[in-house]
Amino acid sequence: MSQFRKTTPNDTYFITLTIVGWINLFDREDYKRILIKNLQFCQNNKNLEIFAYVIMSNHIHMVCRRIDQDLNELLGRFKSFTAKEFKSEINNNPKESRKKWMQSLFKHFAILDKSFKEYRFWQRNNQPILISDSKMLEQKIDYIHENPVKAGIVTEAQYYKYSSACFDSPLKVKEL
């Protein structure tokens, strides 16, 4: 792994996890619920501390850290596990009108990257950026919270349910 992508335990990072081809998987509640459930598991069982997040239609941003263990290692397992759950949800959901289209795209991206056998859901890089000071931390949190506003989804950040800016967010974050 290159130095650019390495993470160290206990350091705080801004990360982005993106669906291959920027496919709008998270425009459906079922897939967002899978993400939330698995992030909560990581918070409760894998020493993941999340300070800010937003789930957009095809990616998720977080400011987070992992206590006493490598963050990238956890994110790799997280992506592998959620990919299996996405695949199952897509294949077994009779309401998923985009099933064949998504299956063919996820197969296509697996073929392009020979390390994947059947489907590929996530882009390889987590794009970890070390948060070096409080000014950078504030900038990254503002960026996260303003993402749905800039995308035209809501008029104010606190109205977007799948963001730490929202009081009623289903994923609770840790105070800094």
Commentary on this structure:
With about 180 residues, this protein is of the alpha+beta class. About 40% of the residues lie in helices and about 15% in strands. The protein has four helices and four strands, in the order βαββααβα. The protein has helices spanning about 30-45, 70-90, 100-110, 135-150, and strands spanning about 15-20, 50-55, 60-65, 130. It has a four-stranded antiparallel β-sheet, with helices on both faces. Helix 1 (about 30-45) packs antiparallel against helix 2. It is globular and about 45 Å long. The mean pLDDT is about 95.
CATH architecture label name? 2-Layer Sandwich
User: Main β-sheet, in a few words?
Assistant: 4 strands, antiparallel
Give the termini distance in whole angstroms.
29 Å
In CATH terms, what is the fold-level topology? Alpha-Beta Plaits
On the 0 to 100 scale, the average pLDDT is 93
Beta-strand residue fraction? 5-15%
Number of domains: 1
Please give the order of strands in the largest beta sheet: 2-3-1-4
Note the run of SSEs as H and E.
EHEEHHEH
Oligomer: single chain
Low-confidence parts lasting 5 or more residues at pLDDT below 50? none
> Which structural class do you get from the secondary structure elements?
alpha+beta
Number of strands: 4
Helices, by number, come to: 4
**Share of helix, binned:** 25-40%
**CATH level 4 superfamily:** Transposase IS200-like
Rg of Cα set: 16 Å
Envelope shape = globular
Features:
single chain; alpha+beta; 4-stranded antiparallel β-sheet; 40% helix; globular
